[in-house]
Amino acid sequence: MRGRRTGVWPRRLQQKRLVAHGHLGNPGGKSLIYAGGTLLVPVRANLLGVDGRSGKVLWTLANCLGRTATPSRWTSAKRDYVLAGNESQIRCIDPRTGNAVWVIEGAGPNAVNVVADGDLLVARAARYESPREGRKPDVLGLLGCWRISRQGAELLWKHEDPEYAVHSYPIPILARGYAYVVSFRGPALALVR
To answer: What's the rounded Cα separation, in Å, for the pair 27 and 32?
Structure first.
């Protein structure tokens, strides 16, 4: 709603009083996540790291999120990380500091969440423009899969066939070695292991 302020209000569920209060900006329809003791607040294309107890802003990371992307929590060796994708890259972020642990350059466009399960990451790996007669082309993505660790990401495969281009908004699901996506032609299944 125009003119409406959004904010974050950390509160202990058993208490009847407000512990902290603050307005951090408009997330633009994106969701909050909690990782490594830090509340991650998307504000347009930017990401704020907020202390989960005090509400104090710890760090800000500019231009790391796609249009409607919410960051994703990923756990490796019992430690939380945050995965964020935008139009041209995917970052693994330390939620305590906001520093990049690693970056995949040239991946995207990722207007929506990147998805991880265990040591696998699925996201849009390349841009594809689907021609439309008399109109601006649809910008789609070609799906890719990476094996990820705290040390980095290794591309396992990338779809090159435009028949399997994926729309900007449906979020892929990654479960038990399969990626479920909505492709240009409808729902599709890809084996990722």
So the answer is: 9
